[in-house]
Write a structure and sequence with these properties.
single chain, alpha/beta, TIM Barrel, three-stranded antiparallel beta sheet, 41% helix, 17% strand, globular
Length: 278
């Protein structure tokens, strides 16, 4: 799949994708015992972000720290399915699923059942040492599962994933090309090294240049560290941004949604998208 497929889902302009940070779900250490409240809050946040102007949303189990390195429990899958279905019913914009830390199979199953249009896979290719241990990409399994469980669902792949370091020496351009060409990702995501931090200008440009000369010219998104002060420069290179932390109270990931910040970022994405084009 190339950019045309991405554009069929998100349109032809630059896109802003808002992140719904879920509170701890059943089975996680911090679960508070009220799943209905989590579901309702997610649906409310989805509606708020859609009205703010975001072109897509992604639901992730951000509160389930510490994360499993690979497969999550059935209780997490069941809980997230309830949330994603509620979000899907609440809005008309595209919905994605990210099951942390790297359960692509669970994300695809949820997407297939609930009608989500994309999944985010933190490690699709390569191997990374993370706080959860060694995480290995399994693109052959992921792409076959996609065709079996959620045909047509887009696979977004992080490169040089945050909170991790590659097991082997590599460069961001090599990782970008491997994700697009050997991992067959439909979209590549570049981030900073930690939550809320942007990639450097050099990293962003290097990844963009690599994808532009590759055999599968897939879109490039910035997956962390988008703020009003740097949004225009990010969108000059990338096809869109995934916004999570900035829209929360105090800019803290996982905190309450700040309506003013959400409106600000939604409006700015629309403004800069019009200036930058595609």
């Amino acid at each position: 799949m190339k950019k045309q497929t991405f554009n069929k889902v998100f349109g032809s302009g630059k896109v802003g994708i808002g992140v719904i940070h879920l509170a701890p779900l059943p089975g996680s250490p911090g679960y508070g015992g009220d799943l209905d409240a989590i579901v309702g809050k997610a649906a409310m946040e989805a509606g708020t972000m859609e009205k703010a102007g975001f072109g897509g949303l992604i639901v992730e189990n951000y509160g389930d720290i510490p994360f499993h390195s690979a497969e999550v429990g059935p209780e997490t899958i069941a809980s997230m399915a309830l949330v994603v279905k509620a979000v899907r019913d609440a809005v008309k914009i595209p919905i994605g699923v990210n099951v942390l830390r790297n359960d692509a199979g669970a994300a695809l199953a949820i997407a297939g059942v609930c009608g989500a249009q994309f999944v985010r896979v933190n490690v699709l290719v390569g191997a990374f040492v993370t706080s959860e241990g060694l995480i290995e990409g399994k693109p052959a399994e992921v792409l076959r599962l996609r065709d079996a469980l959620a045909p047509g669902c887009l696979v977004f792949a992080d490169i040089m994933v945050k909170h991790g370091a590659p097991l082997a020496t590599t460069t961001i351009s090599e990782d970008a090309l491997d994700a697009a060409e050997r991992g067959m990702a439909d979209c590549v995501i570049v981030t900073g090294r930690r939550t809320g931090r942007p990639p450097s200008a050099g990293e962003l440009t290097e990844a963009g240049d690599a994808l532009a000369r590759g055999t599968r010219q897939v879109p490039l998104l910035v997956g962390s560290g988008a703020y009003p002060s740097n949004l225009e420069s990010l969108l000059d290179v990338a096809d869109g941004v995934i916004v999570g932390s900035y829209m929360r109270k105090g800019g803290v990931a996982g905190a309450e949604l700040d309506l003013d910040r959400a409106r600000e970022m939604g409006g700015l994405v629309a403004k800069y998208a019009g200036k930058a084009g595609k």
